[in-house]
Protein backbone atom coordinates (compact mmCIF):
# COMPACT_ATOMS: atom_id res chain seq x y z
CA UNK A 1 0.00 0.00 0.00
CA UNK A 2 1.28 3.45 -0.90
CA UNK A 3 2.42 5.47 2.09
CA UNK A 4 0.11 8.42 2.72
CA UNK A 5 2.15 11.53 3.44
CA UNK A 6 0.98 14.86 4.87
CA UNK A 7 2.86 18.14 4.40
CA UNK A 8 2.29 21.34 6.40
CA UNK A 9 4.12 24.51 5.36
CA UNK A 10 4.40 24.71 1.59
CA UNK A 11 6.43 27.92 1.45
CA UNK A 12 9.68 28.78 -0.33
CA UNK A 13 11.22 25.44 0.74
CA UNK A 14 8.19 23.26 1.49
CA UNK A 15 6.52 23.67 -1.90
CA UNK A 16 9.34 22.21 -4.03
CA UNK A 17 9.94 19.51 -1.38
CA UNK A 18 6.25 18.55 -1.54
CA UNK A 19 6.38 18.47 -5.34
CA UNK A 20 9.26 15.99 -5.19
CA UNK A 21 7.28 13.75 -2.82
CA UNK A 22 4.32 13.81 -5.21
CA UNK A 23 6.67 13.13 -8.14
CA UNK A 24 8.03 10.05 -6.36
CA UNK A 25 4.56 8.50 -6.34
CA UNK A 26 3.45 9.05 -2.75
CA UNK A 27 -0.15 9.92 -1.97
CA UNK A 28 0.21 13.51 -0.72
CA UNK A 29 -2.08 15.67 1.43
CA UNK A 30 -1.27 19.30 2.32
CA UNK A 31 -2.31 22.01 4.74
CA UNK A 32 -1.16 25.64 4.76
CA UNK A 33 -2.66 28.99 5.77
CA UNK A 34 -1.62 30.34 2.35
CA UNK A 35 -4.57 29.46 0.12
CA UNK A 36 -2.76 30.36 -3.11
CA UNK A 37 0.07 27.92 -2.40
CA UNK A 38 -2.46 25.16 -1.61
CA UNK A 39 -4.35 25.79 -4.86
CA UNK A 40 -1.14 25.51 -6.88
CA UNK A 41 -0.41 22.05 -5.47
CA UNK A 42 -4.02 20.89 -5.70
CA UNK A 43 -3.86 21.66 -9.43
CA UNK A 44 -0.95 19.22 -9.61
CA UNK A 45 -2.82 16.37 -7.92
CA UNK A 46 -2.20 16.95 -4.21
CA UNK A 47 -5.16 16.54 -1.87
CA UNK A 48 -6.02 19.34 0.59
CA UNK A 49 -7.28 19.04 4.14
CA UNK A 50 -8.81 21.79 6.29
CA UNK A 51 -6.73 21.35 9.45
CA UNK A 52 -3.63 19.62 10.81
CA UNK A 53 -6.00 17.46 12.88
CA UNK A 54 -7.82 16.24 9.78
CA UNK A 55 -4.47 15.67 8.11
CA UNK A 56 -3.33 13.42 10.96
CA UNK A 57 -6.52 11.36 10.62
CA UNK A 58 -5.87 10.92 6.90
CA UNK A 59 -2.14 10.08 6.58
CA UNK A 60 0.57 7.78 8.05
CA UNK A 61 3.27 10.42 8.48
CA UNK A 62 3.32 14.21 8.46
CA UNK A 63 6.19 16.51 7.48
CA UNK A 64 6.23 20.05 8.88
CA UNK A 65 8.28 22.80 7.20
CA UNK A 66 7.26 25.90 9.14
CA UNK A 67 8.88 29.27 9.93
CA UNK A 68 9.58 28.75 13.65
CA UNK A 69 9.00 26.68 16.79
CA UNK A 70 6.01 28.79 17.92
CA UNK A 71 4.14 27.90 14.73
CA UNK A 72 5.21 24.24 14.85
CA UNK A 73 3.87 24.08 18.42
CA UNK A 74 0.55 25.61 17.34
CA UNK A 75 0.23 23.13 14.45
CA UNK A 76 1.03 20.19 16.75
CA UNK A 77 -0.75 21.09 19.98
CA UNK A 78 -3.61 23.40 18.91
CA UNK A 79 -7.24 22.36 19.22
CA UNK A 80 -7.21 21.47 15.52
CA UNK A 81 -3.60 20.26 15.74
CA UNK A 82 -1.81 17.05 14.76
CA UNK A 83 -1.83 15.54 18.25
CA UNK A 84 -5.62 15.85 18.38
CA UNK A 85 -5.97 13.67 15.28
CA UNK A 86 -3.04 11.25 15.45
CA UNK A 87 -3.37 7.61 16.45
CA UNK A 88 -0.61 5.40 17.93
CA UNK A 89 1.93 4.44 15.23
CA UNK A 90 1.68 7.85 13.57
CA UNK A 91 4.93 9.73 12.83
CA UNK A 92 5.92 13.39 12.76
CA UNK A 93 8.99 14.57 10.83
CA UNK A 94 9.73 18.21 11.63
CA UNK A 95 12.04 19.66 8.97
CA UNK A 96 11.75 23.28 10.20
CA UNK A 97 14.80 24.91 11.81
CA UNK A 98 13.93 25.00 15.53
CA UNK A 99 15.67 24.65 18.92
CA UNK A 100 16.83 21.17 20.00
CA UNK A 101 15.18 21.69 23.42
CA UNK A 102 11.86 22.52 21.75
CA UNK A 103 12.06 19.34 19.66
CA UNK A 104 12.85 17.25 22.74
CA UNK A 105 9.77 18.69 24.49
CA UNK A 106 7.51 17.87 21.51
CA UNK A 107 9.03 14.39 21.15
CA UNK A 108 8.27 13.63 24.81
CA UNK A 109 4.62 14.57 24.32
CA UNK A 110 4.53 12.49 21.13
CA UNK A 111 5.98 9.47 22.93
CA UNK A 112 3.18 9.65 25.50
CA UNK A 113 0.73 9.14 22.60
CA UNK A 114 2.93 6.45 20.98
CA UNK A 115 3.73 8.79 18.10
CA UNK A 116 7.23 8.71 16.56
CA UNK A 117 9.04 12.04 16.35
CA UNK A 118 11.99 12.86 14.09
CA UNK A 119 13.79 16.18 13.60
CA UNK A 120 15.19 16.54 10.09
CA UNK A 121 16.17 20.15 9.32
CA UNK A 122 17.76 20.86 5.97
CA UNK A 123 20.39 22.91 4.19
CA UNK A 124 20.77 23.65 0.49
CA UNK A 125 18.25 26.43 -0.11
CA UNK A 126 15.55 26.60 -2.76
CA UNK A 127 17.92 25.07 -5.34
CA UNK A 128 18.50 21.99 -3.17
CA UNK A 129 14.78 21.75 -2.35
CA UNK A 130 13.82 21.92 -6.03
CA UNK A 131 16.46 19.48 -7.23
CA UNK A 132 15.93 17.06 -4.31
CA UNK A 133 19.56 17.42 -3.27
CA UNK A 134 19.19 18.89 0.24
CA UNK A 135 21.52 18.02 3.08
CA UNK A 136 19.30 16.58 5.84
CA UNK A 137 20.41 16.38 9.48
CA UNK A 138 18.36 13.76 11.28
CA UNK A 139 17.74 13.19 14.98
CA UNK A 140 15.57 10.37 16.33
CA UNK A 141 15.33 6.71 17.23
CA UNK A 142 16.92 4.23 14.80
CA UNK A 143 13.76 2.34 13.85
CA UNK A 144 11.52 5.24 12.69
CA UNK A 145 14.47 6.98 11.04
CA UNK A 146 15.15 3.83 8.99
CA UNK A 147 11.43 3.49 8.20
CA UNK A 148 11.35 6.96 6.63
CA UNK A 149 14.81 6.94 5.03
CA UNK A 150 13.34 6.40 1.54
CA UNK A 151 10.96 9.34 2.01
CA UNK A 152 13.84 11.59 3.11
CA UNK A 153 15.87 10.45 0.09
CA UNK A 154 13.22 11.94 -2.19
CA UNK A 155 14.09 15.39 -0.77
CA UNK A 156 17.79 15.09 -0.06
CA UNK A 157 20.92 13.39 -1.28
CA UNK A 158 23.12 13.78 1.80
CA UNK A 159 21.29 12.38 4.80
CA UNK A 160 23.04 12.18 8.17
CA UNK A 161 21.47 10.43 11.15
CA UNK A 162 23.42 12.30 13.81
CA UNK A 163 21.87 11.08 17.08
CA UNK A 164 18.79 11.08 19.26
CA UNK A 165 15.87 13.46 18.83
CA UNK A 166 17.06 17.10 18.75
CA UNK A 167 20.54 16.24 17.44
CA UNK A 168 19.59 17.19 13.86
CA UNK A 169 18.43 20.60 15.09
CA UNK A 170 21.68 21.05 17.01
CA UNK A 171 23.76 20.48 13.84
CA UNK A 172 21.50 22.85 11.93
CA UNK A 173 21.88 25.77 14.37
CA UNK A 174 25.67 25.33 14.37
CA UNK A 175 25.66 25.41 10.55
CA UNK A 176 23.36 28.43 10.33
CA UNK A 177 25.36 30.38 12.87
CA UNK A 178 28.25 30.11 10.43
CA UNK A 179 26.06 31.15 7.51
CA UNK A 180 24.89 34.26 9.43
CA UNK A 181 28.38 35.27 10.52
CA UNK A 182 29.81 34.62 7.04
CA UNK A 183 27.02 36.56 5.30
CA UNK A 184 27.41 39.59 7.58
CA UNK A 185 31.19 39.48 7.10
CA UNK A 186 30.97 39.10 3.30
CA UNK A 187 28.61 42.10 3.11
CA UNK A 188 30.95 44.25 5.21
CA UNK A 189 34.01 43.13 3.23
CA UNK A 190 32.48 43.95 -0.15
CA UNK A 191 31.26 47.40 0.88
CA UNK A 192 34.77 48.05 2.22
CA UNK A 193 36.45 46.77 -0.97
CA UNK A 194 34.15 48.83 -3.18
CA UNK A 195 34.87 51.95 -1.10
CA UNK A 196 38.60 51.33 -1.71
CA UNK A 197 37.87 51.57 -5.43
CA UNK A 198 38.09 47.84 -6.21
CA UNK A 199 35.88 46.18 -8.82
CA UNK A 200 33.51 43.81 -6.92
CA UNK A 201 33.65 41.30 -9.81
CA UNK A 202 37.45 41.10 -9.65
CA UNK A 203 37.32 40.93 -5.86
CA UNK A 204 34.91 37.98 -6.01
CA UNK A 205 37.01 36.17 -8.61
CA UNK A 206 40.14 36.43 -6.47
CA UNK A 207 38.52 35.62 -3.10
CA UNK A 208 36.72 32.63 -4.65
CA UNK A 209 40.14 30.98 -5.13
CA UNK A 210 41.61 32.37 -1.90
CA UNK A 211 41.24 31.82 1.83
CA UNK A 212 38.40 34.32 2.33
CA UNK A 213 35.89 32.20 0.40
CA UNK A 214 32.61 30.93 1.89
CA UNK A 215 29.20 29.69 0.70
CA UNK A 216 27.69 33.06 1.68
CA UNK A 217 30.16 34.82 -0.56
CA UNK A 218 30.17 32.36 -3.47
CA UNK A 219 26.38 31.98 -3.69
CA UNK A 220 25.06 35.33 -2.53
CA UNK A 221 27.42 37.91 -4.06
CA UNK A 222 27.07 37.00 -7.76
CA UNK A 223 23.45 35.80 -7.72
CA UNK A 224 21.89 38.38 -5.41
CA UNK A 225 24.01 41.43 -4.47
CA UNK A 226 25.70 42.02 -7.85
CA UNK A 227 22.33 41.72 -9.64
CA UNK A 228 20.44 43.85 -7.10
CA UNK A 229 18.05 40.88 -6.78
CA UNK A 230 17.08 40.39 -3.14
CA UNK A 231 13.95 38.24 -3.30
CA UNK A 232 14.25 35.38 -0.74
CA UNK A 233 15.81 32.78 -0.98
CA UNK A 234 16.45 32.56 2.70
CA UNK A 235 14.77 35.46 4.45
CA UNK A 236 16.54 37.81 6.88
CA UNK A 237 13.78 37.12 9.47
CA UNK A 238 14.58 33.39 9.32
CA UNK A 239 18.34 33.94 9.58
CA UNK A 240 17.72 36.22 12.58
CA UNK A 241 15.59 33.48 14.14
CA UNK A 242 18.36 30.89 13.58
CA UNK A 243 20.96 33.17 15.21
CA UNK A 244 18.55 33.60 18.13
CA UNK A 245 18.28 29.80 18.42
CA UNK A 246 22.09 29.58 18.56
CA UNK A 247 22.43 32.43 21.08
CA UNK A 248 19.69 31.06 23.36
CA UNK A 249 20.94 27.48 23.20
CA UNK A 250 24.49 28.69 23.89
CA UNK A 251 23.28 30.60 26.96
CA UNK A 252 21.69 27.42 28.33
CA UNK A 253 24.96 25.57 27.65
CA UNK A 254 27.01 28.49 29.07
CA UNK A 255 29.03 28.95 25.90
CA UNK A 256 30.20 32.52 25.06
CA UNK A 257 29.12 33.54 21.55
CA UNK A 258 30.82 36.84 20.66
CA UNK A 259 30.64 36.78 16.86
CA UNK A 260 27.19 35.21 16.71
CA UNK A 261 25.73 37.99 18.87
CA UNK A 262 27.32 40.69 16.71
CA UNK A 263 26.11 39.01 13.51
CA UNK A 264 22.62 38.82 14.96
CA UNK A 265 22.67 42.59 15.56
CA UNK A 266 23.73 43.16 11.94
CA UNK A 267 20.60 41.28 10.87
CA UNK A 268 18.54 43.18 13.47
CA UNK A 269 19.68 46.41 11.83
CA UNK A 270 18.44 45.11 8.47
CA UNK A 271 15.10 44.14 10.04
CA UNK A 272 14.79 47.63 11.52
CA UNK A 273 15.28 48.98 7.98
CA UNK A 274 12.26 46.94 6.85
CA UNK A 275 14.25 44.20 5.09
CA UNK A 276 13.03 41.20 7.13
CA UNK A 277 11.31 39.41 4.24
CA UNK A 278 14.17 40.00 1.79
CA UNK A 279 16.99 37.50 1.19
CA UNK A 280 19.87 37.39 3.72
CA UNK A 281 22.12 39.04 1.12
CA UNK A 282 20.07 42.26 1.62
CA UNK A 283 21.92 42.59 4.94
CA UNK A 284 24.42 44.58 2.84
CA UNK A 285 21.89 47.38 2.15
CA UNK A 286 22.07 49.43 5.40
CA UNK A 287 25.87 49.66 5.10
CA UNK A 288 25.61 50.52 1.39
CA UNK A 289 23.14 53.30 2.26
CA UNK A 290 25.37 54.63 5.05
CA UNK A 291 28.32 54.99 2.66
CA UNK A 292 26.27 55.83 -0.43
CA UNK A 293 27.84 52.90 -2.28
CA UNK A 294 26.24 50.10 -4.28
CA UNK A 295 28.04 46.78 -4.71
CA UNK A 296 26.52 45.97 -8.13
CA UNK A 297 27.95 44.58 -11.35
P1 LIG B 1 8.33 30.35 4.26
O1 LIG B 1 7.89 31.48 5.15
O2 LIG B 1 8.51 30.59 2.80
O3 LIG B 1 7.27 29.13 4.39
C1 LIG B 1 6.56 28.82 5.54
C2 LIG B 1 5.19 28.26 5.14
O4 LIG B 1 4.48 27.93 6.35
C3 LIG B 1 4.32 29.25 4.37
O5 LIG B 1 3.73 28.63 3.25
C4 LIG B 1 3.26 29.65 5.38
O6 LIG B 1 2.01 30.03 4.81
C5 LIG B 1 3.13 28.37 6.20
N1 LIG B 1 2.53 28.56 7.51
C6 LIG B 1 2.78 29.52 8.43
N2 LIG B 1 2.00 29.36 9.50
C7 LIG B 1 1.24 28.25 9.27
C8 LIG B 1 0.25 27.57 10.02
N3 LIG B 1 -0.12 27.98 11.24
N4 LIG B 1 -0.33 26.47 9.48
C9 LIG B 1 0.01 26.04 8.25
N5 LIG B 1 0.96 26.65 7.49
C10 LIG B 1 1.56 27.74 8.00
O7 LIG B 1 9.65 29.76 4.92
P2 LIG B 1 10.80 28.83 4.26
O8 LIG B 1 11.87 29.71 3.71
O9 LIG B 1 10.16 27.80 3.40
O10 LIG B 1 11.39 28.15 5.58
C11 LIG B 1 10.72 27.12 6.30
C12 LIG B 1 11.66 26.55 7.36
O11 LIG B 1 12.83 26.01 6.72
C13 LIG B 1 12.17 27.60 8.36
O12 LIG B 1 12.26 27.01 9.63
C14 LIG B 1 13.54 27.97 7.81
O13 LIG B 1 14.40 28.47 8.81
C15 LIG B 1 14.00 26.65 7.22
N6 LIG B 1 14.96 26.73 6.11
C16 LIG B 1 14.82 27.65 5.09
C17 LIG B 1 15.74 27.67 4.04
C18 LIG B 1 15.64 28.66 2.89
O14 LIG B 1 16.61 28.76 2.11
N7 LIG B 1 14.54 29.39 2.72
C19 LIG B 1 16.80 26.75 4.02
C20 LIG B 1 16.90 25.80 5.04
C21 LIG B 1 15.97 25.80 6.07
Key structural traits:
binds nicotinamide-adenine-dinucleotide, N-(1-d-carboxylethyl)-l-norvaline Dehydrogenase, domain 2, six-stranded parallel β-sheet, Rossmann fold, 15 helices, single chain, alpha/beta, three-stranded mixed β-sheet
Quote the distance from N terminus to C terminus: 54 Å
Our count of domains comes out at: 2
Largest sheet composition: 6 strands, parallel
Strand content range: 5-15%
Ligand inventory reads: nicotinamide-adenine-dinucleotide
Mean pLDDT: 98
Give the beta-strand count.
Answer: 9
**Which CATH architecture of the largest domain is right?**
3-Layer(aba) Sandwich
Helix-strand pattern? EHEHEHEHHEHEEHEHHEHHHHHH
CATH topology of the largest domain: Rossmann fold
Envelope shape: globular
Based on secondary structure, the structural category is: alpha/beta
Query: CATH first level of the largest domain: which class?
Result: Alpha Beta
Share in helix: 40-55%
- Uncertain ranges: none
As laid out across the biggest beta sheet, the strand order is 3-2-1-4-5-6
Structural Rg: 20 Å
- Helices, by number, come to 15
Amino acid sequence: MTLKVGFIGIGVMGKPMAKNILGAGYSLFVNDVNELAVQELVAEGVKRVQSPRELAQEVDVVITMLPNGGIVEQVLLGEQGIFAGAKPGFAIIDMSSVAPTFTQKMAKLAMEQQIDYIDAPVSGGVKGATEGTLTIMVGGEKEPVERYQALLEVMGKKIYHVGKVGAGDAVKIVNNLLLGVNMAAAAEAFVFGTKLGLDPKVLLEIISVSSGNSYALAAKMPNFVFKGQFEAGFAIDLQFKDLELAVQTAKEARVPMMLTNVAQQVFEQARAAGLGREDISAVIKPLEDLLNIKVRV
